[in-house]
Predict the 3D structure of the following.
Amino acid sequence: FFFRLCYSSSRPRPSARPSAVTFEAPREEDRRPEGTMAMADRDEATMAVIERLKELYNEFIRPVEQQFSYEHFYSPMLTDSEFESKPQVLMIGQYSTGKTSFIKYIIGRDFPGIRVGPEPTTDRFVAVMDGPDERVIPGNALAVAPNLPYSGLQQFGVNFLNRFEGSQLSSQVLRNITVVDTPGVLSGEKQRLTRGYDFTKVCRWFADRSDLILLLFDAHKLDISDEFKSVIQCLHGHEDKIRCILNKADQVDRQKLMRVYGALMWSLGKVVENPEVLKIYVGSFWDQPLLFEDNAELFEMEERDLMNDLRDLPRNSAVRKINELVKRTRLLKVHVHILSYL
């Protein structure tokens, strides 16, 4: 139904590794070496689909949500900025698995407010986005900005908004996607209770609005804590978006890497309730030379596949938004039937 309505209207790896120059497209003011990959900007057909989706939602779906108080049971009503938002990539993993370094790697530079270290350094949610100047935007300002899709985060309270911020910088990659960095998942019950907000529910909110979810694992730390397990299980229904990254794989030799990969598959099989195997990318996503170069060719191929996944996000954003609106409409239909019966 929605498809009909919407579409009817309309290289060898060097020893000193460069930071994501194979991903970022050249710009007039910032020329890059040849061989870079440019991400596709939104075309007119995609924008036409998004405009039609907004019309359908505001004319037919939103009035029903208001009548049956949908936002009190599930999620707040959608805003125009959520339809118009860029594809979003959500990074989830335990502390010191390389989430922040991965973002630095794909955009090719540091971003404002970056904190990297072996200890739990990222203690807040950070939305890394494109902008004309470099600055850090507080979470309370992001939640009330009319042109950003974060107004729904106000439901999690001031404690969360104080732990949420935006990192703005000019980047060709970020002109097409937004990347959300998350705090490292902790293992202790005491740390979980002292967050001041429901970490699992916040992750679920971001997952509902993300086009790609990356679960990062360290090759030396494959244990899945209770909180990490609950976060993975809360992603149920979004298995098509999930990709796993076995990071820091250059720190083990070929034989150990095979065992680590098997152990990760076994651990995920006990947590993810999905008959299909999740896609796992193996590599070392930072700008330092490889420690063991036995698998350099494998890492290069895995990185190419992952970058292709990221590059395709803008092209598939319209289909993803249609899919999410269809799922929301089906849930609304069930909600209406239940309330009508009661």
Remarks:
- The two ends are 29 Å apart (CA to CA).
